[in-house]
Structures
1.
Amino acid sequence: MTEKSKKNIKLKVEDLTLIFGKRKKEALALLNKGVSKEEILRKTKCTVGVNKASFEVREGEIFVIMGLSGSGKSTLIRCLNRLNEPTAGKVFFDGHDITREGNKELLETRRHEMSMVFQKFGLLPHKTILENAAFGLELRGEPKAEREKKALDALETVGLKGYEDQYPAAMSGGMQQRVGLARALANDPAVLLMDEAFSALDPLIKSDMQDELLQIQDKLRKTIVFITHDLDEAIKIGDRIVIMKDGIIEQIGTAEEILTNPASEYVEAFVEKVDRKTIITAETLMFNKPTLIQLAKDGPKGAIRKMRTAGMDALPVEDENRKFLGYVWLKDTLKLAEAKETSVSKALRTDVPSVYKDYTVEEMLPLISNHRYPLAVVDEKSGKLLGLVAQTSLIIEATRYGDEEVNELIEKANDI
Ligand SMILES: Nc1ncnc2c1ncn2[C@@H]1O[C@H](COP(=O)(O)OP(=O)(O)OP(=O)(O)O)[C@@H](O)[C@H]1O
């Protein structure tokens, strides 16, 4: 798959279950027999918070846990640093099992390896912004000068340089959350756990914070587990997304994987209203074994044969290194054949747009208006042709679920 899948596994969660209530053992036994959450509540008065969750978080990714209220997201993230004690299952951090750590070891892990950013910021009102940002370091006993230096760096990273001496009450919600983030970053943890960190913010500030987080992530490449009930937020910031319902993981995948291949009716209903244009990419839509013309081998006659067999009046051309060169049209190629030319190079049109595999439908749509052939998808580095995206696929994706632009697009497509 992608580069990311080759990276190290930072967190591994195996069959994690958390049950609230006194009769946990009894409830767990029922759960293992397949009894439902409602039935378990009725029989034992215990609530199943998380039900046999398993997943892996890769180093350097933003892993989003998403679900409606009560689906178990907070319970699950709090199991990762054992703020909630799992009833069953394991949590591995860098290969060692956190669920077996003693109190001292656990405290070390929390202070050094995993920092949490909360929805309600959790700032101390009588401490300055600098002291708040340095608070995690103070807890772990770092000398003042060192912790202040690290806290200042972290404040700069989140765009709060110059505010060090202010107090939280003087800051807006967005700024307070930046301090919360700076405090977590100052610890330089391997993993950031963000529990609905932006949910309390106004929409515009929320969007700014998401952008900010993505920029910070570009630089720092932390492993981030991020909880949200907002699907748009999950799609915007998540490298991969988990969708939870009733404590159970319904699906894990990239936004695109989830959208193109929802694992259940629940997920399908959930993602139904998402604007697919901004998510579906060339990589998903392309057919990757297109008929093409090799400039060094195929003369006009060979090219015409290929076009007729493929039923196309234009085909892409590549050189001997499989680099995409452009297109030839049937009508031009026929003229070359008549003139007994031996190469199609005179018919080659190089002024055609090509796209990379991460281009979204939205980015590709403007390219269809004046070109009648499929769009060439080329490798960003080598220029090799990876595949072609048919214009009809673009239109189908763009117009799914009654998009308003449907008529306009179909008209455009008919014109060309
Ligand atoms: N301390 C608790 N005692 C008993 N049941 C709890 C407790 N905390 C959570 N639950 C229950 O566990 C389930 C999962 O709750 P959790 O708070 O993890 O969901 P959530 O997806 O984070 O929801 P929200 O977005 O509302 O915070 C729910 O059924 C909830 O009622």
Note: Residues 1-6 have pLDDT under 50 and may be disordered.
2.
Amino acid sequence: MEGFVIAVDRGRYTCVLPGAGPDAPTVTAMRARELGRKSVVVGDRVGLVGDTSGAPGALARIVRIAERSSVLRRTAEDDATTAEGRLERVVVANADQLVIVSALADPPPRTGFIDRCLVAAYDADIEPLLCLTKADLAGPEAVLDYYAELELPYVLIRPESELDALRSLLAGRVSVLVGHSGVGKSTLVNRLVPQADRAVGTVSAIGRGRHTSTSAVALRLPPAAGRDGDPGWIIDTPGVRSFGLAHVSADSLLHGFPDLVEGTLDCPANCPHTPDEPACGLDAWVAAGKADPRRLASYRRLLASRAGESDPRGEPEPGGERPGHG
Ligand SMILES: Nc1nc2c(ncn2[C@@H]2O[C@H](COP(=O)(O)OP(=O)(O)OP(=O)(O)O)[C@@H](O)[C@H]2O)c(=O)[nH]1
Ligand SMILES: [Zn+2]
């Protein structure tokens, strides 16, 4: 039997069988020994044997993991020079889209976080979608201006707005949602999947027990009125507050900044693109108005945090870096 892993909890994997309807029971499985050290994560397509009836107490075994079409990874820290920094985790397998949820106000948008997510998305070969919430509180102009050079798809969310545009972007695909605490991600998940019942306004899981649902969960989207076909799946990732990028090479980091790529064509071979490299073409590129200087600053901040030079947590940026303030 083929299964799709929708949740992982202490060595037990919850799977759904493709073709089984939304009301079919889920199958609980454990890993078979023959899998060795290979980890099974949410989004994996697996081969199941044993009792796949989904009856209470039934336990199936995962004997095979299908080749993954994409792998979203994160590292605990950014610093590629330390063992802790290199500790790499697969967050989700086989996602098609990374939905970066950012509030337009309360909390204000952090383009440093969004840039980090974009690097992770391009690195994983997952399409990004910018989901700007709390559009009732502030306009999107400053954020959109910052990303003007990128063809970054986006949707705006207000409390009373229809979610049709978002639903059509989610249809038929597996989308992972990431966002900082308080941006309205749980509110959005509950609107998209009313039966999900995700906790809203819980402030943050930080400081609580580690077991307070910090692992990823895949939720089946309900059929949308007037639309046929698979409505898709969303994967909520309550535990992912940031993406450490130590596993991403300096060159791959640049893929998160497509507006800067052309500016490196005249760089010397093996240019580190750092501010202390006088021959780096990026300074001239920005000086010539070909890209926004804030974009280069953000790229170099990520480069530096990877090299262990600055704030290794890479959490929010220093004040004044917000769009429209730089
Ligand atoms: N004005 C406004 N407030 C919103 C909107 N969406 C969510 N909120 C409020 O923002 C607060 C945080 O929302 P949550 O959904 O809990 O945010 P979260 O991103 O899930 O954060 P955690 O619960 O910490 O994971 C709540 O008080 C929501 O009612 C919105 O579109 N507009
Ligand atoms: Zn360079």
Note: The first helix runs from residue 83 to 86.
